[in-house]
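Thread: quick sanity check before group meeting

JM: Hey all, I'm pulling together slides for Thursday and realized we never actually wrote out the predicted structure for the chain we discussed last week. Dropping the sequence here so it's in one place. If anyone has concerns about the input, flag it before I start.
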Amino acid sequence: MKILIVEDEVSSRFLLKSFLSEYGECTLTENGEQAIEAFVQALNAHEYYDLVLLDIKLPQMSGMDVLKLIRKSESEKGIGFAEGCKVIMSTALSDNETVLGAFREQCEIYLVKPIEKSKLIESMRKLKLIE
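JM (edit): ok, ran it. Output follows.
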């Protein structure tokens, strides 16, 4: 499995990598611009990400904007929502507007920080990324 972790907090980024590295190759990015660059490079090389773990509050570009660009990039390559990468949004924000906005932009799962390994693994099972 190929995993993109988009998280601006260093400790959170490496914690998520420690949770996920046993399930696949993890690419770490700390802002939206780096995330889009990594995602598009992989898309162009036909080495698609299976999972994107995306923080909503990022410097320079919000996670919502990153998600929009991910879905747009997939669409431009003829990849439909069902065939695209699975996106788990993560944030400390749990208000209805933010949560609904994330689902409107086509994330599959929304986790509120701090992220527990058990909830992350359960989410990956729901997405049928692992058994």
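AS: nice. The chain is about 45% helix and 20% strand. The first helix runs from residue 10 to 20.
JM: adding both to the slides.
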